[in-house]
Design brief:
With about 325 residues, the protein is of the alpha/beta class. Helices cover about 35% and strands about 25% of the residues. The protein contains twelve helices and 15 strands. Strand 14, helix 12 and strand 15 form a beta-alpha-beta unit. Bound molecules: NADP nicotinamide-adenine-dinucleotide phosphate. NADP nicotinamide-adenine-dinucleotide phosphate (NAP) binds next to helix 2, helix 4 and helix 5.
Amino acid sequence: MKTISLTNYGSNVLRAILSLKVVDADMPKPGNDEVLVKLHAAAVNPSDIAFIQGGYNIVKPLPATPGFEGSGTVVDTADGLRHLIGKKISCFVQNDKGGTWSEYFTVHKDDLIVLDDRMDMDQAACFTVNPFTAYGLVNIALLRESPAIIQNAAGGQVPAFIRTLAREHGIEVINIVRKPATADKLTEEGNKYVLTEQDEKFEEKLKTLAHDLTATTAFDAVGGAGSGTVFNAMPGDSELVVYGGLSGKPMTGIDTMDVIFRDKIISGFNLIDWKNELDENEFLEINEKLQQKFINGEMKTNIRTTARFEDIVKGLKEYIGNMSSGKILIKP
Ligand SMILES: NC(=O)c1ccc[n+]([C@@H]2O[C@H](COP(=O)([O-])OP(=O)(O)OC[C@H]3O[C@@H](n4cnc5c(N)ncnc54)[C@H](OP(=O)(O)O)[C@@H]3O)[C@@H](O)[C@H]2O)c1
């Protein structure tokens, strides 16, 4: 079978991408509680880019196959899971073995979602991570009874899903982006509150909006100095939920007095931990709700293009060049 192989981690993202090769490999064998999946499509997420740079919390022994998410069909299994053979699945695999950028790969039964037959398999390749992340994050805002939220990296896919889910609950969204072109796109789509980081009066505008709309929850995918800017702009009794580190920089600029005297807090969100805290029925209920939203078109990942294995380098370069233009899928 063909697989994509990473031979060197490289903090220089272009160099890391260039080190990816398509190679022949032995077919993996499913172990206990695992199934063998024939890939339909694999997603490319910021976590995959961080992984090939060696900057993610998972570092596999090299050579390694990248890819944490994908869709496909179960073709073989260890005993006890034969009922899954032939099922279409979406999965999120974060262990130090094989990844989804491979014609075939193995998945533990707890890391896969069996799909409704009506699910589009390209959409299914991006189903297990971002929709659930957005769901978990919006749930935090609901528990806090926040009338409005702030989110940065707002041209990305998680923020797009957050807008959809927030709208459903009547929560206003203040969107922050770094490029004027992304701001224009979001405004054209009908979003009321869109701010560009480069704007001269950005901090002032953000603070005014955050107070006027009582934005007491913020979702931070960027880190760096932007975390401090968002945190300081929020009214008292607010929470900054950090779920991504796109800037690659430590969070700075947090107003100490806000933490001590204004009941403002910072927390982290990680999909796997969130999922592990749910009981099985809760997860099944959310899964059914989200699959239904994909089937009826309420939620949809913006997929810009597909790269075949042999075009992986070109595809990844395109993705990192403009992440707000949508995801790329990888297919054998
Ligand atoms: N904690 C969790 O469990 C969890 C789960 C899922 C996702 N995530 C994280 O969520 C974040 C968003 O993922 P996604 O799939 O929505 O991403 P995506 O669709 O690929 O888009 C990334 C977005 O981030 C923007 N961006 C990139 N670097 C930036 C920077 N330094 N400063 C400001 N904006 C920047 C991009 O804007 P440009 O077009 O300007 O590049 C783009 O709009 C990532 O950090 C990902 O790792 C976390």
